[in-house]
Amino acid sequence: MANLWDERAERYRTSAVHAGGPDLDLVVEWCDAGPGTTVLDVATGGGHVARRLRELGAQVVTVDRSPGMQPDVIAPAEHLPFADRSFDVVVNRLAAHHFDSIPEAVAEFARVAGERVVIEDHRYTDEATEQAEKLRDPSHVRALSEDEWRSLLTAAGLEVEHSTVYEMPLEFEDWLARTDTPAADRPRIRELLAPLSSEDGSTWLSPILIIGARRP
């Protein structure tokens, strides 16, 4: 898996969808970070959350399982090599649907976070959307519903403060190219996502959940 993400690293660093947008703005806002705040950015990918938080003066450590993403620490989200409550904030953006075990990862987020956890990920829509996501990218494991996220955060000892759903517009050609989706699979993906697609078929709206929780 690491080799796969190493190959994709530059695409995610330069992806406009990942580098900005109202969803990124909200994630940064909910981190409530500034000078002196310590943040762990898990599955940092292109490092866009870390960049924004560092601009605010926060002390950010990045972690990712892929060396190609150039994180400060190489590790999976399910096994974070840090002491309990060693960061004020743990943040994770647009990656959890790739995790081997989201429950284990959330437990780790809660363990190392002293104050709050902020997560953004694809929200479960239906099985057709899940099938399309897996056809497009076999590393997709599963998206969770908002109720599932709330249950996991609560089970980890956190209290949910905020949640919202953002409909992220994705251009089909750019989205499919980012993961080298085989041409033979592309018509079926478009068919599965037709209910969420624009009239001209050029884009589709992916429901994204942003949820913030804090330690009681």
**What summary fits the major beta sheet?**
7 strands, mixed
Mean pLDDT: 93
Helix/strand/pairing category: alpha/beta
Cα radius of gyration in angstroms: 17 Å
Tally of separate helices: 9
Distance between the termini: 36 Å
Characterise the protein shown here.
This protein is α/β, with parallel strands linked by helices and 216 residues long. It has one domain (2-124, 141-170, 207-214): Rossmann fold, CATH 3.40.50. Helices cover 36% and strands 25% of the residues. It has nine helices and seven strands. The chain has a seven-stranded mixed β-sheet with strand order 3-2-1-4-5-7-6. α4 (48-55) links the parallel β1 and β2 (59-64). The protein starts with a helix and ends with a strand. The model has no long low-confidence stretch (mean pLDDT 93).
Short description:
Helix content is 36%, strand content 25%.
Chart the SSEs and their pairings:
Elements: H1 2-13, H2 16-19, H3 22-31, E1 38-42, H4 48-55, E2 59-64, E3 73-74, E4 87-93, H5 102-112, E5 113-122, H6 127-136, H7 146-155, E6 159-171, H8 172-177, H9 186-192, E7 203-214
Parallel strand pairs: 1-2, 1-4, 2-3, 4-5
Antiparallel strand pairs: 5-7, 6-7
Helix pairs in contact: 3-4, 6-9
